[in-house]
Amino acid sequence: MAKLLIAGGAGFIGSHTTLLLLEAGHQVVVLDNFSTSSPESLQRVAQLAGSSASARLCLVEGDIRDPGSLDQAFQTTSAPCDAVIHFAGLKAVAQSVHQPLLYWDVNVGGSQRLLAAMERHGCHTLVFSSSATVYGYPDRIPIPETAALQPINPYGHTKAAVEQMLADLASNEAGPAASGPSRWRIARLRYFNPVGAHASGRIGEDPLGPPDNLFPFVSQVAVGRRQRLKIFGADWPTPDGTGIRDYIHVMDLAEGHLAALEALWNEPPQLLTLNLGSGRGHSVLEVVQAFEAASGRPVPYDLLPRRAGDAAESVADPTEAHRRLGWRAQRDLATICSDGWHWQSLNPEGYGSGPA
Ligand code: NAD
Ligand code: UDP
Predict the structure, then answer these.
(1) 109 to each of 115, 198, 240, 263, 293, how far by Cα in Å?
(2) Residue from 135, 155, 301, 351 carrying the catalytic annotation
(3) Ligand nearest to the CA of 230
(4) Whose C-alpha lies nearest to ligand 2, atom 19?
(5) 155 is catalytic
(6) Taking CB atoms and a 6 Å cutoff, what residues make up the pocket around ligand 1?
(7) Contact 242/233 with Cβ under 8 angstroms?
(8) For the CA of 155, the nearest ligand
(9) Which single residue of 48, 51, 56, 146 has CA 20 to 30 Å from 310?
(10) What is the CATH code of the structural domain delimited by 3-353?
(11) How many other C-beta atoms are found inside a 10 Å radius of the C-beta of residue 169?
(12) Is this model's pTM higher than 0.90 or not?
């Protein structure tokens, strides 16, 4: 059993990963300020994990920018912390354009504080949530990890900046004697498009306000919470004219985090940089059709002009994650849609719906 600190563990990806970590027998301390999530997600994680596993879950409500909250999270038990998974941050591209300082403060400043706290508490193993957004407009498809990093919005810049901070730490941090190799074991995981929900339908994605992303928007239209989907561009250079993305089931993503932790613990200190995607691309219209099939509900849509800053296509080359972790995404688009619909139909208003 390891002791893990999960920053942002109440959020969409964090809650699913926390559940998997509890089921794997680990002790989990979640540090979250609930700025984009609800404490209800963790209550449901605890219920799903069962009473014996949930006894290994502990919550510290606080901000990663606050050293006192970080110290409290590291000191919840006398056991040293074996690793941190860092999900805490802001992720809305459009908001990042309007509030770049907030994004640099939370995503970059917060990460710096978290890393400093890890130093203070002698923890040098980190899994960091990066994003395919660091590739900007990709120059080839599928995208390998060696592709150029050329983010095109403040959110992407903050992810690339933290990736650089971690590379600096991995290459320069030399221990007390200032002469040996780095002690840091770091995985920078570049997620493609995380979607779907836990198969129980008890936890899932619950964005605040109108969703920016396709999948939650489609699912809210299907459940009747929103009237029509806006499809941003039907004139992309793709087979049906709509944008293509690599949608990855959130449970596949959670499993990728466990695999990354195992690799970091079992191998010498290293900086691991991996795409977590399925390697399969689906167009907006394919997603709409698959969701209609899974839900049995219509998803009416309007075709609008392209959204600023969108790329035609973004699909991972997931070969390296398979080679290094033995991990690959298992769940297809039909499963993503049926699990997503299960969550949305049981919880039409998300966690605000009350007990499901
Ligand atoms: P989310 O918004 O559901 O979860 C983020 C969690 O972090 C929330 O619980 C939020 O309350 C918490 N948080 C935010 N700022 C905090 C702070 N200052 N202190 C403490 N807690 C804070 O988002 P998610 O989809 O679960 O994403 C998790 C991570 O993965 C993020 O870093 C995001 O940038 C990254 N990512 C997400 C996607 C995606 O499409 N979902 C894609 C690529 C990368
Ligand atoms: N999209 C859309 N309508 C929406 C949201 C997204 O047509 O309401 C399209 C978007 O143009 C892109 C795809 O769906 O082609 C995925 O968009 P999302 O915002 O989910 O992910 P990202 O663009 O960040 O990869």
Answers:
(1) 10, 31, 42, 27, 43
(2) 155
(3) 2
(4) 213
(5) yes
(6) 8, 10-14, 31-37, 63-65, 87-89, 91, 106, 110, 129, 131, 191, 194
(7) yes
(8) 1
(9) 146
(10) 3.40.50.720
(11) 19
(12) yes
